[in-house]
Amino acid sequence: MFTEIGTLPEGVDYDGIIHKDFELREQLVSDSVAVFDSPERAQRAEKNAAFMGLCILAGQIITLGHIPKQEITPELLLDMKQSDFNELSSAARRLEERRKSFRS
User: Fold this and answer.
1) Of 13, 49, 56, 58, which has the highest C-beta tally within 10 A?
2) Is residue 57 pLDDT above 90, yes or no?
3) SS3 state of residue 23
4) What is the pTM of this model?
């Protein structure tokens, strides 16, 4: 499985600590399906494609600093700075490009 390792420009605040280092894996079908495991998230994702994308991105994050994996949620990511979101989105695109070039 491909992963992308990087550093967020500003970082995510969790328990009073700023977390910047991340590892992201490629998107799996289970990331999309998992959104519908929570009725609240499913309802919100059905109404808002951007929230759906955020749910998927949260599932792709393997590590974000020292934040416990179960705490890396779309709700946590909603409070991140736009520059950090842009970096994670760019990392996801780079990962997809690497996967495509490897498979062809």
Assistant:
1) 58
2) yes
3) strand
4) 0.90
User: Tokens 């994670």 label which residue?
Assistant: 88
Tokens (6 digits) for 72: 């890396």
Crossing angle of helices 49-60/82-103, nearest 10°? 70
Contact 19/90 with Cβ under 8 angstroms?
no
- Please give the C-alpha separations between residue 54 and each of 6, 102, 104, in angstroms, as whole numbers: 18, 26, 28
Instruction: Report the half-sphere exposure of 53 (CA within 13 A, side-chain side).
Output: 9
Question: Which residue(s) pair with 14 in the sheet?
Answer: 17
Helices (H) and strands (E) in the chain, counts: 5, 3
The answer, yes or no, to whether residue 10 has pLDDT greater than 70, is yes
Sheet hosting strand 17-25, strand order edge to edge: 3-14, 17-25, 61-64
Closest of 28, 19, 3, 38 to residue 77, by C-alpha? 19
